[in-house]
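Try it yourself: sequence plus prephenic acid, in.
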Amino acid sequence: MTRIAYLGPAGTFTEQATRRWAVERGADLPTGTGPDAQPEPSVPAAVEALRSGRADAAVVPFENSVEGSVPATLQALLQVGDDVRIVGEVLVEVQFSLLVRPGRADEPVRTVASHPHAFAQTRDWLDARLPGARQVPESSTAAAAQAVAEGRYDAAVAAPGAAEAYGLTAAARHIADREGAVTRFVVLRSGAAAPPATGSDRTTLVALIWQNRPGALLELLEQFATRGIDLSRLESRPTGEGLGEYCFWIDADAHLSEPRMREALIGLRRTCRDVRFFGSYPRADGRASVVPAHAGADTYAEALRWVNTLDRGPADAAG
Ligand SMILES: O=C(O)C(=O)C[C@]1(C(=O)O)C=C[C@@H](O)C=C1
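Structure, out:
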């Protein structure tokens, strides 16, 4: 049985991602009675469940199409050891409802709870409809729904499905400021090799460049550009070591097994202060990686064969 830790409690978007992962990739999971989804109270707790061996995999939110990356996840990944790797990703379309206790749909709302990312995606709606309500951050949208069921708050911004999980009712539906928002969740495993390349892959890295070195960022980007690797995400985040100290989170559209990616990693390792590799894994949207003619594995192999001939003298080479 595969035990999967996820940001809980039941009813989070992360739970939806976990179930989708288990169904879609069922064949990848060891056989048994099926995945055992373990709700955890926070992202660090889900990662810790994996690290300590209480879980075989962990599913955590990574980035949202409206609100950007999830800081708790980036932080937890930076703190965990090198053996924890991203082995897959899941996309979930997020929709929000305003959930209240049954019979209270028309009552005034003085307190509304949710996850900060959910507040950020419903800001305009909340400002327009509940301008006086105090917004209380909770560890997840489902934790907020649970707290409403317990009578701690008047309302929660949560996934529609959380209503059923906690015996609540929707006072309003589709309250996101932007329809069609999508959250990307990542699946983590400990001590796992990268899944094989599919032709639609992503590699997630963090690079720490040398401070006060003019052109250091350009040099970093060149490692990818000259090798024909498209970047789908580049984000600078503070390292916590002091003002102006930043690291760069990178999603590169190539797989570790490709020569162009290996060379880029060698280049990064040579030129950066530090590089963390978080994994190469299939993209959930299946979009094929772009491989320019000069960056394909065959081109690398041919160029390597050629350079190896140069060791021999011209006469040898001719013969
Ligand atoms: O609270 C949840 O339901 C989560 O799964 C977390 C999370 C997030 O961290 O962004 C996931 C998707 C939504 O964007 C809002 C919250």
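One thing you can check immediately is this: The pocket of prephenic acid is lined by residues 7, 12-14, 61, 64, 70, 94, 115, 117-118, 140-142, 159, 183 (CB under 6 Å).
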